[in-house]
Amino acid sequence: MADDAIMQPTRDPRATLPDLIEVLLNKGVYLNLDLIISVADIPLIGVNLRATIAGIETMLEYGMMRQWDKETREWVQRSVHAHLPLADGEEILAKMAGGHYQDNFYRTWRPGSAYLTSQRLIIHRRDPAETLWQATLSSIESITALREPSIGGEERTRIFVRLDDGSESKLSALEPERLITLVQEQRGAALETSSDRLSDPAQPLRRGRMWYLETLSTGGTWRGGEASLTGEELVWKSPMDSRALVRVPVGQLQNLRWEHQDNPTDAPRILVFDTDDSTVRLAADDIGDWHDELEQWHTAGQHTAQQHTARQHTAGQPIPAHGKNDGGEP
């Protein structure tokens, strides 16, 4: 009777469907079943069942379905290789929707797919087949996340990549943080991953759409363009110009302030500051964020300059003669 009681099915009211799925995926279930179906005490059908149910990772961990996994991976490699040429021994580690920001005469996002292989980071479009951007992992000097507003005004996380030849590119990905982490893991310790905002002077602290009030003989004219703030300078450039109209080093920004003035944005105020030889007026939809960023940038730049001046002053002090103190006494 005791054995019969043990074999009776039980039901735990606390168990839920997610609990069952978690057990199936992480631990797995092994079924060893002998079933006989009888009609009027006459056995008609026999079932002998041996089955293992688990998540694919668990199955592979225990040495099952490895041949299927190998064949599936080879099939994926062949299907991708048909439109994305891969080098010998190059394997695809991750794939997701992505894009590349074309920054030349025409500024636009070009959508495609982001591929991380064992050798390269690639943005590729399948139809028509075209590699929009690519770089070998060994040439990537830094890769960081960059928050910026999209055309619709929503905050998006982009991927900012700088190569060892000094070129810079902006990419998008469905999972940008995951892609950055995977690239960093592939590059290892050789990849620069510093999070210090001013440790890399060329790294953009902020980028975005901004209007600049250009002073002409006939009056002022608002011009649209893009502003970029790095650890060294603030730059504003119109897409119609070959060079930047505003380039302000960190040490030249003076008297940062607000002014109420009509401008092309919905903000009632504009940002104004002086330089060594001019006054600059800027407007943006997120002008408050730009103001805070510039204040922090200017303060950090002043602190760095003070440290540099202190070091120069210390280096220029005369060294007391041996055996005498500052008062000149022996």
Automatic annotation (TrEMBL):
Molecular function terms, GO-annotated: structural molecule activity
Source superkingdom: Bacteria
Keywords tagged on the record: Gas vesicle
Main localization of the protein described in the UniProt heading: other
Compositional bias (Low complexity): 299-317
Region described as Disordered: 299-330
InterPro entries in alphabetical order: Gas-vesicle_GvpA-like (IPR000638), GvpA (IPR050530)
KW rRNA processing (keyword) present: no
A Gene Ontology term for the protein's cellular component: vesicle membrane
Location relative to the cell: Gas vesicle
Family that this chain belongs to: Belongs to the gas vesicle GvpA family.
Name of the molecule in the record: Gas vesicle protein
Organism, scientific name: Brevibacterium marinum
